[in-house]
Specification:
With 374 residues, the chain is of the alpha/beta class. It contains 10 helices and 21 strands. The strands form 6 sheets. A 5-stranded parallel β-sheet has the order 3-2-1-7-15. Strands 17-18-21-20-19 form a 5-stranded antiparallel β-sheet. Strands 11-10-9-12 form a 4-stranded parallel β-sheet, covered by helices on one side.
Amino acid sequence: MSVVIVGAGQGGFQAAWSLRMEGYDGSITLIGDEPYLPYQRPPLSKGFLLGKQELESVTLRPEKFYSDQRIELRMGECVASIDRAARKVVLASGSSVPYDSLILATGARVRRLADREALYLRGRDDAAQLKDRLDRAESVAVIGGGFIGLEVAAAARMLGKEAAVVEIQPRLMQRVVAPVVSDFFRELHETHGVRLMLGSGDVPRADLTVAGVGVIPNVELALEAGLTADNGIVVDEHLRTADQNIFAIGDCSKHAQRGRLESVQNAVDQAKCAAANIAGKTQVYAAVPWFWTDQFDAKLQMAGLSGGADRVVLRGSPPKFSVFYFRGGKLIAIDSISRPADHMMARKLLAAGVEVSAEQAADENFALASLVNR
């Protein structure tokens, strides 16, 4: 038996490790197109840009870990195609690797601006180049008011640079948070001296321009192999593609019910689920999605998916508060700003599927834990 994993990011790494933890004893080959050992991306836009972490510290495990776990690494190699009939992946070098099960963890790439020169942040090389340029710049213009753009802007100000954020939408992080959360982070950035240009496409002159305008899932390999893709490789509840021997996880996959999610948690939990299924355990992917971003001294932690919410309720007040999202009277998501206990409780509430009323959510004297511990 052999498993090949294409993509050596956090999801690919977790899939390989989880296979061993599930008792899978066959061969595992982990193929990555970057020359580095698998690493975590979140610190690249946080601690690394601020000089609090070295680039080497983002490595997930030393090389010895892989040899001890009998995981064959093929770093710096690109998969050119998948031969589904012969069950093998063909590398750009011309060699091939056979598989019984294949996991696609191909991730996503940054969406690039066609009409403007800018730096982007996705991988280690991007981060190294951005930090070098940021250290030498006096002013930074950031295009995009999402997580990455705001984290870069915050880092720039904390390093003493002038910073401006250009966002075409009228509010920050508009796609994923309620207006009250957008307003809080607008005030936070303005208080720290970031110039916000909302509802605008005019980019000010600066020593350095950075763009954070979303990503594009890497589905080309799957499409060329005849698999179904629609803003992500389409998978079922077990994370299988149209080919029962091929799974897709992480940023490149589109779950039948949840759609495509971009987060470390999603990549890691989907990796665990796919590994369990390959190891012979029938497992449905049902993990509660969660996300986070650090900006200045505020941490936003999100649990669940707030899309389609028809009621929003606040618990607490700025600068430390939580936002509860309801749809049809049912709790669907919770955003917590500098209230980590609320976030942990949010994940428990959503996982348990218990009923929470808007009145209970808003009442800080009501113990939400009582709903889970019944």
